[in-house]
C-alpha cells in the first residue's frame, strides 16, 4: 500500500482529521451538532455488537428450532440494503430460514411473494428506525392480516421488530405480541446501520456467522484509532483516491463486483448518494452497470473494484477487492468512514438527507387527492437524451417489479444509451431508490437526466386499515417523486407502460 496517496490528497491534515473523528467532533462537518453528534455510533458499533453475538445466535436457533422456513424482511433503505448484500453474498445456512428482502410496494411483487411462501412457516422481520416509514408499515398490515387468517391468535409470534427505543414500532410490537423486539443503537443513521441490529438480526436469523462478519469489521475499526497510521488504513486510501478523482472531474463511481460482494454497489449507492448528494454537490455511484465498449466510458469515471474482474481500460481504479464474503464486514466500515472523510473535504454534512422529505410529502398529497400534482415532462426518452450536456448521466427510475427478465431488458437499455451517447446510466427500482439515490437526484448536482417508468396494474393488494391499496401507493410514490424532481429543476421524462411491461420495455429499448 502506498504511503503517498493519503498525503497527496489531504496533506498533513489527515492525522488531525482522524483524531477529531475519533473524538466525534461535529465541527468537522457542521457548526451545529444536530444530526451529527447523534449519528456517529457506527464508528465502534462492530466491537460493541460482539457483545450481542450470543443473544442473536440464541434467537436464531429458536427460530430454526420452531421450523420457520422463510424469513421475510420488511424494510426500506438503510434497513434493507445491508441485509440484501449479505443475503446475496453469503445466503442462508443449511437448516435456517431462507432470507427474503421486500423493499417494494409493487402489488405485483407482493402478490407474487404471497403465493410463493407458506405463511405458517414464515417469520417476518419488521425493520424501521423511526417506526413511521409508510412502506414497512403497509407491508406489516398486509401480512399480519393474512397471518391472522392462517394461524389465528399466534400471528404475533411470526414477527420480529428492529427499531429505535420509543418508536411507534416498539409500541406496536409490544401490543401485537411480537416474538422479539430488538432495540438498536439510536446514534446511527440508517445508511450506516448495517453492522448494528438492523443488519445483523436478519443475517443471524438466516444463519450467517455474525462473529466472522464482525471480526473483519473490527480489523478496520482498529486501523481507525487515533494512534494508528492513516497511511496503513484501507478507509483512508479509499477516501484519498475518491477525493483525488473528484478533484480531477471524475465524479461517477462504477462498482465492479463478484459473488463475494454481490449487491455491494446497491448498498454503496445509498451511502454515497444520500450522504454526499446535497448542496448541488456529490458523487454519482453506479451499480450493476453493463459491460460497455471501452470508448463508451467518459473522462468523468472512476472504477471501484470490490470483486474480481478488471476495470474498463483507461478508467482509474480503486481496489478494495475481497476474496471472502465475510470480509464484507470490514468493507462496510471502510466505505462508511471514507464517505465521512469525503464530507469533510467537500464541506458537506454527510449524516442528514434534507431533500428526501420532498418526495414523501408529495406522495402524501397524491394519496390525499391525485389532482394535487402535475405530471409535466419532456415527452420522450429520445427528447430527454437530446437535452444532455457534458458530464450528465441518465437515472432510470423504474416503478415496476424487479425480475430477472426486466433486469435483462433494462441492462440492455443502459448499454445502448451509454454506447450511443457516452453518458453513464444508473438504475433504481421504486420505491427502494427513494430511500437511497433519491437524495442525490434532488439535492445533488443538476447533471441528471431523470427517466421515470411506471406501469398499469391489473390486480391490487389492499392495505388493511387504509383507504388505498399497494397499486395506489406505488403510483402515488412515483407521482410524488416526479413532482419533487420537477420542483428541483431537473430534466425529467416519463414512460407509462399500459400493456405487458417486459414487451413494452423491449420496444422502448429497440428504439434507442
Describe the structure.
The protein is of the alpha/beta class. The chain has three domains: 4-31 and 228-346, Rossmann fold, CATH 3.40.50.10490; 45-208, Glucose-6-phosphate isomerase like protein, domain 1 (Rossmann fold), CATH 3.40.50.10490; 356-510, 3-Layer(aba) Sandwich (Rossmann fold). 43% of the residues lie in helices and 13% in strands. It contains 19 helices and 13 strands. It has helices spanning 4-10, 13-22, 45-49, 53-65, 81-89, 107-116, 134-151, 168-175, 197-205, 210-223, 234-247, 264-276, 328-346, 356-368, 381-386, 404-421, 438-443, 470-487, 501-510, and strands at 70-74, 98-102, 122-127, 159-163, 180-183, 252-256, 284-286, 301-305, 317-319, 393-398, 424-429, 448-455, 491-497. The strands form three sheets. Strands 2-1-3-4-5 form a five-stranded parallel sheet, sandwiched between helices. A four-stranded parallel sheet has the order 7-6-8-9, with helices on one face. α4 (53-65) packs parallel to α9 (197-205), α11 (234-247) packs across α13 (328-346) and α12 (264-276) runs parallel beside α13. The chain is globular and about 65 Å long. It starts with a helix and ends with a helix. The mean pLDDT is 94.
Task: Give a short overview.
The protein is an alpha/beta fold.
What is the fold's blueprint, element by element?
Blueprint: H1 4-10, H2 13-22, H3 45-49, H4 53-65, E1 70-74, H5 81-89, E2 98-102, H6 107-116, E3 122-127, H7 134-151, E4 159-163, H8 168-175, E5 180-183, H9 197-205, H10 210-223, H11 234-247, E6 252-256, H12 264-276, E7 284-286, E8 301-305, E9 317-319, H13 328-346, H14 356-368, H15 381-386, E10 393-398, H16 404-421, E11 424-429, H17 438-443, E12 448-455, H18 470-487, E13 491-497, H19 501-510
Parallel strand pairs: 1-2, 1-3, 3-4, 4-5, 6-7, 6-8, 8-9, 10-11, 10-12, 12-13
Helix pairs in contact: 1-11, 4-9, 5-9, 5-12, 10-13, 11-13, 12-13, 14-18, 16-19
Amino acid at each position: 500500500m502506498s504511503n503517498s496517496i493519503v498525503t497527496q490528497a489531504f496533506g498533513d491534515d489527515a492525522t488531525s482529521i482522524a483524531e477529531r473523528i475519533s473524538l466525534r467532533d461535529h465541527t468537522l462537518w457542521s457548526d451545529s451538532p444536530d444530526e451529527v453528534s447523534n449519528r456517529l455510533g457506527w464508528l465502534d458499533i462492530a466491537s460493541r455488537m460482539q457483545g450481542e453475538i450470543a443473544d442473536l445466535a440464541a434467537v436464531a436457533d429458536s427460530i430454526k428450532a420452531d421450523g420457520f422456513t422463510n424469513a421475510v424482511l420488511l424494510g426500506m433503505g438503510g434497513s434493507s440494503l445491508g441485509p440484501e448484500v449479505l443475503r446475496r453474498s453469503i445466503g442462508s445456512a443449511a437448516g435456517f430460514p431462507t432470507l427474503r428482502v421486500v423493499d417494494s410496494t409493487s402489488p405485483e411483487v407482493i402478490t407474487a411473494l404471497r403465493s410463493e411462501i407458506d405463511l405458517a412457516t414464515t417469520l417476518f422481520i419488521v425493520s424501521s428506525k423511526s417506526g413511521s416509514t409508510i412502506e414497512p408499515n403497509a407491508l406489516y398490515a398486509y401480512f399480519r392480516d393474512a397471518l391472522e387468517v392462517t394461524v389465528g391468535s399466534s400471528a404475533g409470534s411470526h414477527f420480529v421488530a428492529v427499531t429505535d427505543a420509543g418508536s411507534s414500532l416498539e409500541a406496536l410490537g409490544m401490543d401485537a405480541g411480537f416474538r422479539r423486539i430488538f432495540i438498536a443503537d439510536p446514534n446511527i443513521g440508517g445508511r450506516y446501520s448495517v453492522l448494528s441490529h438492523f443488519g445483523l438480526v436478519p443475517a443471524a436469523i438466516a444463519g450467517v456467522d455474525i462473529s466472522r462478519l464482525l471480526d473483519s469489521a473490527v480489523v478496520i475499526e482498529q486501523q481507525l484509532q487515533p494512534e494508528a497510521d492513516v497511511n496503513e488504513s484501507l478507509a483512508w486510501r479509499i477516501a484519498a483516491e475518491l477525493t483525488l478523482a473528484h478533484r480531477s472531474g471524475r465524479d461517477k463511481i462504477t462498482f465492479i463486483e463478484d459473488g463475494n460482494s454481490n449487491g455491494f454497489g446497491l448498498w454503496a449507492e445509498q451511502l454515497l448518494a444520500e450522504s454526499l448528494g446535497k448542496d448541488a454537490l456529490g458523487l454519482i455511484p453506479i451499480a450493476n452497470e453493463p459491460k460497455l465498449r471501452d470508448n463508451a466510458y467518459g473522462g468523468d469515471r472512476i472504477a471501484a473494484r470490490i470483486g474480481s474482474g478488471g476495470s474498463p481500460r483507461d478508467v482509474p481504479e480503486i481496489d478494495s477487492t475481497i476474496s471472502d464474503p465475510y470480509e464484507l464486514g470490514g468493507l462496510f466500515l471502510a466505505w462508511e468512514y471514507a464517505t465521512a472523510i469525503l464530507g469533510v473535504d467537500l464541506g458537506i454534512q454527510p449524516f442528514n438527507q434534507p431533500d428526501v422529505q420532498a418526495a414523501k410529502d408529495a406522495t402524501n398529497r397524491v394519496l390525499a387527492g391525485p389532482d394535487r400534482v402535475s405530471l409535466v415532462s419532456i415527452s420522450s426518452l429520445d427528447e430527454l437524451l437530446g437535452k444532455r450536456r457534458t458530464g450528465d448521466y441518465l437515472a432510470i427510475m423504474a416503478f415496476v417489479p424487479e425480475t430477472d427478465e426486466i433486469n435483462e431488458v433494462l441492462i440492455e437499455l443502459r448499454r445502448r444509451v451509454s454506447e450511443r451517447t457516452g453518458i453513464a446510466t444508473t438504475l433504481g427500482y421504486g420505491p427502494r431508490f427513494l430511500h437511497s439515490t433519491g437524495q442525490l437526484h434532488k439535492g445533488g448536482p443538476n447533471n441528471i437526466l431523470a427517466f421515470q417508468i411506471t406501469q398499469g396494474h391489473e390486480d391490487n393488494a389492499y392495505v388493511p386499515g387504509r383507504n388505498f391499496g399497494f397499486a395506489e401507493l406505488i403510483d402515488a410514490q412515483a407521482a410524488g417523486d416526479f413532482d419533487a424532481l420537477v420542483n428541483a429543476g431537473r430534466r425529467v421524462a416519463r414512460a407509462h407502460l399500459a400493456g405487458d411491461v417486459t414487451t413494452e420495455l423491449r420496444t422502448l429499448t429497440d428504439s434507442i
